[in-house]
Fold this protein.
Amino acid sequence: MVAREISHGLARLGHDVHVITTHFKGLPTQEDQDGVRVFRIPAARRALYRASLLDMLCFVISGIWFGMTHLRHWRPDVIHVHFAVPSGPVAWILSRLSGVPYVLTAHLGDVPGGVPDKTTRWFRWIYPFTPAIWRDASRVVAVSSHTRQLALQHYPVEIQVIPNGVDRDILNPGELCVNRPARILFAGRFVGQKNPHQIIDTLKALEDLGWNCVLAGDGPLREKMMQQIRSLGLDHRIRLTGWILPDEVIRWMRSSDILFMPSHSEGLPVVGVQSLAMGLAIVASPSGGFIDLVDDGVNGYLIDVNQPEGYERALRVLLSDPERLLRARQASRSKARAFDLHTIVGEYEKLLTAVIRNEKSI
């Protein structure tokens, strides 16, 4: 999602942008998207919401093979790679073989310790191969200050922070109001990192208040979550959408009041930045990038994941006081200016141009 928006933004500025990504069943292997040439390569991926170590290894092999073939016909001035793992090795090898410099953007899940329940086992095996990816990049970017600080513990390189951005002109909620009853939204994968069971437990404690909740997403915890919802008698108030496309997530945001994300870890979640632009109050854990998105007590609340009773208190404040909830929504919309996509794309254009000029001056 982030790579797509940045690529489209650079194309609108007149740059020639080609994107190599993973193929998934039902999608074309090649297409033009608003001036961006997209190539989807085979990588044996079987699920949209997760990638196994085997999936990533297949992508690395396929990406190197396709990339070298592609570079014989179209030579870029610079390679921009998102995620040190698994995409980083592709950029590193292509750069070594072709001499084209690369810029790395890290998103947290590609940093050791960033998403412990997901990547700790992987990094036991792959960490020794990763320092060169960070060291040899012409520039390294992190999407949040938290991601940068964690990366510096493992990779002593210069790292610049450029947050994920959204187009506030497109993501425009219009005049804000508060629904009656208020509507709560979670959007993401149903995995331990996102802590979705906490959402259900918290809402059970708020059963005396008026609210409806949508859990937008899918993942391995779906069945257990459905059982939990039924056992607590919340079937009529909590809806699970299943896996949905990004545009559908935005539609749910448009009809919601509060984003509830009690995650154990996050980079700079796109859904969080989108929620700012759509004017949602945010109740979240201070995990990574949410620190950059929430002014505690202004446009929402940051709650220590180890003190889950705080989620109940924060939501009770917002649900019990529609005027306060409206002010929090308005504050989110205002804060979204700092994450405007046009500004973010401009930062990347400046960085990529500097890399190209430096390379040509050598």
